[in-house]
Write a structure and sequence with these properties.
Mean pLDDT: 96
Largest sheet: 9 strands, mixed
Low-confidence stretches: none
Strand order of the largest sheet: 16-15-14-13-7-12-11-8-17
Strand content: 15-25%
Shape: globular
Bound molecules: nicotinamide-adenine-dinucleotide
Length: 390
């Protein structure tokens, strides 16, 4: 840190709820842990509701606020646009930000469909701005370490990639019809909200998926109308009902380009599972498994261990040797959900400072969106679908 000259980089954030809080916190905390050449300055935050955005401005520590996102993008004192609004707004905001030459962080899924995602990806390719999509789970130290082990061949040839992302926050039929349950705002349901993360981890750890088949279900077809902007703990507020137009759950069988078989399940109806984002990978030399609800630990099984001593070992990924972990606390002093965002923002700012394109980027966002679309198509047609290549 001594002698480090830091240049300010000015952040303009659009949206301020769940992800707005996670991203603002990450920018604020980042300089505590990383010697990045760029120091985030929380310049301006935008939202449509003036009282609410003013509250967010004060709480998160932004210098100013706007009630029109277009004004935020036009501002010359902003270098980075951070998009944390619902999915149907991503295309228009991202294209405007790219047009204005701003660097870009966007929440997942990239957009509403593959056609829009392609437009966004093409726009970044022409522009030269740096861009990232916020698949934050990649940035848990245990995930980065799993990637190292897999690339070193520790588990050998992969046979199976098995992932579930299980939540239970909408089991109650009185849970209101928030934006996440409307196709014209969210694009899809459990698929794009949860499945998108599992698919990103699968691509990161095991490569591309070539073809797949799937089935989807909407268990509760109508819900009370309420505050569309409510989050995961929204409460019903009306006797009037509206139609749920997205999937509540999805199951997928897939084939990877490396010959592995994949199974994926994403649901918001798995009672007792709050945020169980987990996977297991089985290879000919061993297996790896991880569970977000125990995110500091990675489980590793090695087939060549002594007979009688074989079993999954638990690796607490908090040592200096584990990616990102050394930036935080001494070994065994665990980190949490919010640190995945800090690590991601660190990667983003390094990319800008050193002029490389950090990953995952809009290309990953597009590949992810092509998978989401193939899954929806397969469920609709009750058929196997080949995944479009980029
Ligand atoms: N990386 C992750 O793990 C993760 C987790 C949750 C959400 N997300 C993504 O982040 C984005 C925002 O999700 P969130 O959970 O922060 O949402 P949220 O419901 O908590 O907040 C949405 C924000 O967008 C604003 N908004 C603008 N237009 C809106 C509209 N038409 N309807 C409702 N709100 C509108 C709201 O006022 C609010 O500020 C989405 O793309 C979502 O998929 C990612």
């Amino acid at each position: 840190m001594v002698g480090l000259v830091q240049q300010p980089i000015r952040i303009g954030m659009i949206g301020y709820q769940f992800m707005g809080k996670a991203h603002s916190h990450a920018y604020r905390d980042l300089p505590f842990y990383f010697d990045t050449p760029l120091k985030p300055e929380l310049k301006v935050i935008a939202g449509r509701n003036e009282a609410a955005v003013k509250e967010a401005q004060a709480r998160y520590g932004f210098e100013s606020y706007e009630t029109d996102w277009r004004k935020l993008i036009e501002r010359e004192d902003v270098d980075v646009i951070d998009i944390v609004t619902p999915n149907h707004t991503h295309l228009e905001i991202a294209l405007a930000a790219i047009e204005a030459g701003k660097h870009l962080i966007i929440e997942k899924p990239l957009s509403m469909n593959a056609a829009d995602a392609k437009r966004m990806y093409q726009a970044t390719k022409k522009s030269g701005v740096k861009h990232m999509i916020c698949h934050n789970y990649r940035f848990a130290p245990a995930i980065q370490f799993a990637k190292q082990l897999i690339d070193q061949g520790k588990i050998g040839r992969v046979f199976h990639y098995r992932a579930n992302y299980l939540q239970d926050f909408i089991i109650d039929p009185d849970f209101p019809l928030v934006w996440r349950l409307k196709k014209d705002i969210a694009g899809s349901g459990a698929l794009g909200d949860l499945g998108a993360h599992s698919l990103d981890l699968a691509r990161f750890l095991n490569g591309e998926i070539s073809e797949l088949t799937s089935t989807m279900e909407t268990f509760i077809k109508e819900r009370p109308l309420g505050d569309m902007t409510g989050g995961l703990s929204a409460k019903g507020s009306s006797d009037q009902m509206g139609e749920v137009t997205v999937d509540d759950a999805v199951a997928v069988i897939a084939r990877f380009e490396n010959g592995a078989l994949g199974t994926f399940e994403a649901t918001r109806f798995a009672n007792g599972n709050r945020n169980k984002n987990k996977f297991e990978i089985n290879g000919d030399k061993g297996s790896i498994r991880w569970d977000m609800e125990d995110m500091n630990n990675l489980e590793l099984y090695l087939h060549d261990d002594e007979a009688g001593e074989q079993g999954f070992r638990l690796i607490n990924c908090t040592e200096e040797v584990h990616p990102y972990a050394g930036a935080y606390w001494p070994a065994g002093h665990i980190i949490g959900y919010e640190h995945t965002f800090i690590n991601l923002m660190h990667e983003f700012l390094q990319g800008i400072a050193e002029d490389y394109q950090p990953k995952p980027d809009f290309e990953d966002g597009l590949r992810n969106q092509l998978l989401l679309e193939a899954i929806e198509q397969s469920a609709k047609e009750r058929a196997w679908v080949k995944v479009e290549r980029v």
